[in-house]
Amino acid sequence: LVQIFIKHICGWTEEGPKKGLFGKPAAYYGTVEEQGRKTLHLHFLLWISGQLPLNTIRERLMSEDSEFQKELTEYIESCFMGEFMTGSKEEVSARVPFIPEFEDRGIHTILVDDSNVPEGYQDPTLTMPEAPPSEFCEEPEMCRCQNCLDLLSWWERFKMTVDDILIRSNGCINKQGVCTARFPREIIMNTSVDPKTGHMSIKKREATINDVCPTVSLTNRCNTDTQCLLSGTSVKAIVGYVTDYITKGWLKTHQVFSAAYDTFNK
Ligand SMILES: [Zn+2]
Ligand SMILES: [Zn+2]
């Protein structure tokens, strides 16, 4: 699964780096962690080629270069979103059918009431992603050919499925009803830049979900989190955090530094 992710989502192929979901990759670094309950999950850093040094980005944001700011905002907002695709959390919750889990107790199994689950509905965290039609025209929105109509209906299902996965997987309330993931977060209606510091506040319209890349959610069909690291401090913090997973317990200090050194040289 990780190799498929690296090749098809990130664009790191056998023939070298190709344009992936976030651009052409320059380097990547990731580790798989095992949680206490034995589930595996991936922490992954991706460097994009053509990326300006972070201090240059900051300077250009502070110089109020509006074209640069516009293009950077468009790029970042194309990488992830902090809201649902088809409506508010309340609307998505109301739409997504809830199938109660049942315990198999043989003849004593309690019958599950699934009368409000639409015929043919499947929980998307238990199914494979649906590929878009392979052929369509230049401007599918304008066209009425069968391929373009299929594409547009695929896109509607894409958005509904992403929201369904988000509402099921990106929750945060534990059994005691307490939020475990720093929610609610601050709502930011539009991306903006503070010209005094060059700090960018990125659009975030839903306080109770983390930021996600819709295509990553759709293809992985589980809880995901996507962030754009725009400061040296956050890059170093994440490198440290990710490195920690491969250095827990048995590695000596010089090996920890060597792993971090190799990462910065990549
Ligand atoms: Zn067409
Ligand atoms: Zn929470």
From TrEMBL:
Superkingdom of origin: Eukaryota
InterPro entries referenced in this protein's UniProt entry, alphabetically: Helitron_helicase-like (IPR025476)
Domain (Helitron helicase-like) ranges: 2-46
The name this protein goes by in its record: Helitron helicase-like domain-containing protein
